[in-house]
Design goal:
This protein is an alpha+beta fold. The protein folds into four domains: 99 residues, no CATH class; 69 residues, no CATH class; 111 residues, no CATH class; 295 residues, ABC transporter involved in vitamin B12 uptake, BtuC. It has a five-stranded antiparallel sheet with strand order 4-3-2-1-5. The protein is extended.
Length: 636
């Protein structure tokens, strides 16, 4: 006896189990669902405990009388609880109890039935877990308990989740098509993956073959064999639907014909006439009609069968109004997804541009003021990253370590830059080829030194916990907090550089040397000192960039090599020696690279190649860059 809703009575759950003892003892997913549904609908106070115990393998049966009991581990074996009353029945050894062990399919049905109890549970965690279970495996039977649970929900967040899930289940399972359409329209252009997951089955189609289009069929389109559908696939649909025999193969036809040769003839047709496929097909058809060969379709019969039937793409959803609403909703979502993908691409490009700007800002300073092609600039970035790694070996607090590493990296690379300028660069002014070769040699030497000190394996530079994760706007658009921090750092350095250049004596002297070094020297400015400080400043900024880049990239001796090419491209495209040019160049290259990767996402090397080709073409038309520098650099 299966209990109907509204028959609340203590002991009803025990009665359901007793009346369906055989099904419970040998439970399977195919047979046990009515019993589980009856337990859930019994309104017995013990129903939830019985279902939970059954799912957890804590439901047993006494061998002596076959009665069902709840089990709990005990020193004597099991502590027993009466299902009808909830009272203790004492203990029993394990030998006297048959433990019911439902398989995964049965446990899945029990879990779905338990949802209606869990939706009203006092524990918010259990209510959220019930919603997650419904989202994974909800069906029409869950709509009523879910709707009842919404009114009683006090937690605003959980209530909103229940209301959203109710609309998702409504658009899939409600018996009223208008209610489903209203639920679909209520989402608008919502980008939730759960919504798309619910809508896609409503517009899913399958190919069918029919003699006549069934009345009321929800047809997506009519298929034409040989055009919309390959002939072979179309005939396979006929065979699958039982509307035509299997296709006759050449080998089977040959075997059947040879088996029925009689006095030089097959089915009355002389062998001499069997030199073409049409005659062989006619002979086989005659044998087939006489019952001497198995039923199979020759090529002419295949053609006739295809012409006699219709082939359709039909929606799995029978209601055309619902599929129309679902398709319209998916189109709205696709349009919004396109816009969001563009926004996400723009954020990626902006974050990449900020990285390139940080990496190139120091190079822009030294190249613009001193006209020095510093091939070791990438190694200053690498030195800054390793400085951050070393600091973290002594300071375990990652936030403090980063705050210490940033100024320390500046100091280390500033000192290294000054030393390099004093020992090498100043002897090679106005000799660009020798400068390039010398700095390239220094680059190799610094890489090898880093390998000797730190080894060849990548070293971790760990970001603080508050930089973990990403800022998520929706299911499409997000950006990591580390990249946001780098973007902010780039803005800080842009502001700091502009302050130094516009508001300090050093900035005034740098601008003077940049515009006209001879006139600056005649005014008492020491160009040699300015060159040294400028080179040190550019190197120090590269060190800070190394700390920032090391937070998301692998810290190795080759770290700088990965950014030196982009740094030079940024400076050349933007305009040498100009901070605004470096910003413009970084923005252009960042957006260009991400744009190319968007159209060719599987090959980033090709994207970089196309980018370099574009830049080569660009500088042919604008050799001084986007923002050309005035003064010495412009005249050289």
């Amino acid at each position: 006896m299966l209990v109907q809703p509204g028959q609340a009575e203590p002991g009803r759950a025990a009665q359901v189990l007793s009346d369906n003892q055989a099904l419970v003892e040998k439970a399977s997913r195919q047979t046990i669902e009515p019993v589980i549904a009856a337990l859930a609908a019994s309104e017995d106070p013990m129903a939830q405990a019985v279902l939970e115990a059954w799912s957890d393998k804590r439901l047993g049966q006494r061998k002596a009388d076959g009665s069902f009991v709840l089990l709990a581990p005990d020193a004597a074996g099991y502590a027993l609880t009466d299902i009808a009353t909830g009272e203790s029945l004492g203990t029993a050894p394990k030998s006297e109890i048959d433990e019911l062990k439902p398989n995964s399919g049965v446990r899945g049905l029990i879990g779905a039935a338990l949802v209606q109890f869990q939706l009203m549970d006092a524990d918010p965690a259990k209510r959220r877990a019930a919603l997650d279970a419904l989202a994974r495996d909800g069906n029409a039977s869950h709509l009523a308990p879910l709707r009842a649970a919404i009114a009683a929900e006090k937690d605003p967040e959980i209530k909103a989740a229940k209301e959203r899930l109710e609309r998702l289940l409504t658009l899939r399972f409600d018996a009223d098509p208008q209610a489903r359409i209203a639920a679909i329209d209520s989402f608008g252009a919502d980008l939730g993956l759960d919504l798309r997951g619910a809508l896609n089955p409503l517009v899913a189609t399958k190919q069918v073959a029919v003699t006549e289009v069934p009345e009321g069929a929800n047809v997506a389109r009519t298929l034409r064999p040989g055009k919309d559908l390959p002939r072979e696939a179309a005939y396979d649909l006929l065979v699958t639907a039982g509307l035509a025999p299997a296709r006759l193969t050449i080998s089977d036809q040959r075997a059947s014909l040879l088996a029925h040769v009689d006095n030089g003839k097959i089915a009355g047709i002389p062998l001499a006439e069997m030199d073409n496929q049409a005659t062989r097909d006619a002979a086989y058809t005659a044998l087939e009609t006489a019952g001497l060969a198995p039923s199979a379709a020759t090529e002419d019969e295949v053609t006739a069968a295809l012409a006699a039937h219709k082939f359709l793409d039909t929606y799995a959803e029978p209601d055309a109004a619902v599929t129309d609403a679902a398709r319209a909703a998916l189109k709205r979502i696709d349009r919004k997804v396109g816009l969001m993908q563009f926004a996400d691409l723009a954020l990626d490009a902006l974050s990449l541009a900020s990285i390139y700007f940080l990496a190139a800002i120091g190079l822009a300073i030294t190249f613009g003021v001193m006209r020095v092609i510093n091939m070791a600039h990438g190694e200053f970035i690498m030195m800054g990253a390793y400085t951050g790694y070393v600091v973290q070996q002594y300071i375990s607090n990652y936030t403090v370590s980063i705050l210490v590493a940033l100024p320390l990296a500046f100091a280390v690379t500033f000192a290294a830059g000054v030393a390099m300028e004093r020992l090498v660069i100043r002897h090679l002014y106005h000799r660009p080829l020798e400068t390039l070769l010398a700095t390239f040699g220094i680059s190799i030497a610094l890489q090898q030194l880093a390998k000797n000190i730190f080894g060849t394996q990548a070293r971790p530079l760990t970001s603080p916990a508050w930089l973990d994760g990403a800022l998520t706007f929706n299911d499409v658009v997000s950006i990591s907090y580390i990249r946001i921090a780098i973007f902010v750092l780039g803005l800080i350095f842009l502001g700091l550089f502009l302050f130094i250049m516009k508001k300090t004596r050093l900035g005034l002297e740098v601008r003077a040397v940049t515009q006209n070094p001879k006139m600056a020297a005649s005014m008492g400015i020491n160009p040699d000192r300015i060159n040294m400080l400028t080179f040190g400043l550019g190197s120090g900024i590269a060190g800070i960039a190394g700390v920032a880049i090391g937070l998301f990239a692998k810290v190795t001796s080759e770290l700088g090599s990965d950014y030196i090419v982009q740094s030079f491209m940024t400076v050349v495209v933007g305009g040498v020696g100009n901070i605004w040019g470096a910003l413009a160049g970084a923005t252009l290259i960042g957006f260009l690279q991400k744009g190319i990767e968007f159209f060719n996402p599987s090959n980033t090397l090709a994207a970089q190649t196309y980018m370099i080709v574009f830049i080569i073409i660009f500088i042919q038309f604008r050799p001084r860059g986007i923002i050309a520098l005035k003064g010495r650099a412009a005249g050289d």
